[in-house]
Amino acid sequence: MKIVTWNINSIRLRLPSLLNLISTLNPDIICLQETKCPDDKFPYDELIKIGFQHIAIKGQPSYNGVAILSKVKIKSILHHDFCNKKDSRYIGIETAKTKNIGPLIIHNFYVPAGGDEPNPEINEKFQHKLLFLDEMKDYLSESIKKPIGQIVTGDLNIAPHENDVWSHKALKNIISHTEIEINKLNTICNPEKWCDALRHEILDSEKIYTWWSYRNKDWEKSNRGRRLDHIWITKNIEELKKDILIYKNTRNWDRPSDHVPVMITI
DNA sequence: ATGGTTGTTTAACAA
Questions:
Q1: Which of A160, A217, A259, A261 is deepest in the core (most CB within 10 A)?
Q2: pTM greater than 0.90
């Protein structure tokens, strides 16, 4: 089973890229963030037509928006309104059991970016991010009590390791790589319960990036990336993990998202 | 230290 996470940054603008991604990687489940699409304008028909008959969405106009597209039957959809904001930053599913795998719970997060000023007392957006992480910790520690395999995916907007950013020194006071948010993320991704699938696969000494800013003239040449997109799996399905792919090619596609898709094969 | 770009929705906001 192949599961992809991708911050698509507008599903309507990038539907052709999504279809291209699907025909190239042939995933079974796709977790999208920043769909930026109200539910009544979601491109259901095109996706159902190519086999994603089971779709869970939580959209809103202009901002945020998450969706899970699945070829596997969805047994139930999970909702949670983090920070009582009525925004669209989380959706989860429990899949039906398939021949080889499942059921699985898949959590799809779009964690707040947090603005620019790394001080929660003067920056409400950073405060929101930190409170979101606190609530995420409680929510997942409750969910993980269920004795079935679980996966956390999404744009977590935090690059926790030194080699998840192009310069640990230059970014240590830049939101996404500050100590306070990294510490919070690390308490959620407790290694006794969760396996950080990318870091498990790739040596700590190697750089991993899944996002490159639009603001660099040549993203590939300057290569100032960050690992903001994550896939974690519970220890009880860790032995199922076969492969990880960071599909960097898409960053050179026409009208690219600033994030690239990440895929796990289990 | 500053400014660089993209997307949605209609000049401003978010990333």
A1: A261
A2: yes
